Amino acid sequence: MFREAIEQMSGYVPGEQPRGMKLVKLNTNENPYPPSPKVVAAIQAAAEEGLQRYPDPSASAFRNRAAEVLSAHNAEITPDWILCGNGSDDILTIATRAFVDQGRAVRYPWPTYSLYKTLAEIQGVRHEAVPCEPDWSVGFELTAPSDDVRLVYLANPNSPSGTLLEPGEVAAIADTLDCPLLVDEAYVDFAETNCLDLVRTNERVLVSRTLSKSYGLAGLRFGYLVAQPHVIEQLAKVKDSYNCDTLSIAGATAAIDDQAWLADNVTKVVAERQRLDAGLLAAGFDTVDSRANFVWATHPTGQHEAIYQNLKAEGVLVRLIRHPGWSGGDDGLRVSVGTPAQTDTLLALLATL
Ligand SMILES: *Cc1c(COP(=O)(O)O)cnc(C)c1O
């Protein structure tokens, strides 16, 4: 019954989401803190107003507020530069469907977010994973000329490394490519720089953001894309008519409105990232300097699966990530930044292992 591409692919495997267990959950880069209380109030108010009507198909309330907030930090953005999605995964899907024809290809530095490969497989197109150097710097082949590559994904900061390319480096990549560059800024609020300004000067640069990580709203499902208005106009044809619902639009609008909450949260998470990194180093791991809300850790013994299993048996969940064949090592552990108490639990356990 199925297209061959679907039968042959294995499907994206999300991080474990065990329910009803008391776990120290450091495996999917969720925010350890609940969102702004204004988000819950806005969702409640929207629910009380009634859900019998369809939502605003273009999520104007969010786009209006987001345009103001982004303009305060970067060059001027108006609502027609923004496309909203059911999480930024939806944005990545829309871009893949809109840009990449049958028989063509996508490209991305690797190791990275494994959904990019899945999206290519669903679309039935080739994927070119360009290996990073062992220090996670991006291989020059990313910009090699190609007749087939129609979209390049660039997670920045990258996952699982937490490494960041500066806007000038991303601009150089974008200027060399002759296809769109989708800069996936899922973690950018934890970093010091971002690539929003590049969108203004290069129509082939698209920047995606999510409320799942820095706004503590992974359960809400809301993300957005910033690109030039004529690009947004084409991409909007591809999205589901009502891809964001009434409750998520209300919650997301309240969330981006509360920049004081965001600033406070980022300060806490970044401070704790520092402590987590130092603790992992003291426990004998090698770590990568992270600009995100997680730390990539490898151990000289290479016993990552055993460490992962031992932690899990004690109720601490981290992410075991495999990328067999990579010159920087076959696997490692990605540890999300939690609360100070969660860091303490993790580090105390590691000391006993
Ligand atoms: C978490 C994550 C996303 C997905 O975010 P959602 O908005 O929850 O769909 C996208 N890209 C990267 C690199 C991520 O880590």
UniProtKB/TrEMBL annotation:
PROSITE patterns: AA_TRANSFER_CLASS_2 (PS00599). Its cofactor is pyridoxal 5'-phosphate. Its EC number is 2.6.1.9. GO terms for molecular function: histidinol-phosphate transaminase activity; pyridoxal phosphate binding. InterPro entries: Aminotrans_II_pyridoxalP_BS, Aminotransferase_I/II_large, HisP_aminotrans, HistidinolP_aminotransfase, PyrdxlP-dep_Trfase, PyrdxlP-dep_Trfase_major, PyrdxlP-dep_Trfase_small. Pathway: Amino-acid biosynthesis; L-histidine biosynthesis; L-histidine from 5-phospho-alpha-D-ribose 1-diphosphate: step 7/9. Residues 22-348 form the Aminotransferase class I/classII large domain. SUPFAM superfamilies: PLP-dependent transferases. CDD domains: AAT_like (cd00609). One of its GO terms (biological process) is L-histidine biosynthetic process. Pfam families: Aminotran_1_2. It catalyses: L-histidinol phosphate + 2-oxoglutarate = 3-(imidazol-4-yl)-2-oxopropyl phosphate + L-glutamate. The keyword Ligase does not apply. The keyword Calcium does not apply. The modification N6-(pyridoxal phosphate)lysine is found at K213. Keywords: Amino-acid biosynthesis, Aminotransferase, Histidine biosynthesis, Pyridoxal phosphate, Transferase. Gene3D superfamilies: Aspartate Aminotransferase, domain 1, Type I PLP-dependent aspartate aminotransferase-like (Major domain). Belongs to the class-II pyridoxal-phosphate-dependent aminotransferase family. Histidinol-phosphate aminotransferase subfamily. Homodimer. This is Histidinol-phosphate aminotransferase. It comes from Botrimarina colliarenosi.
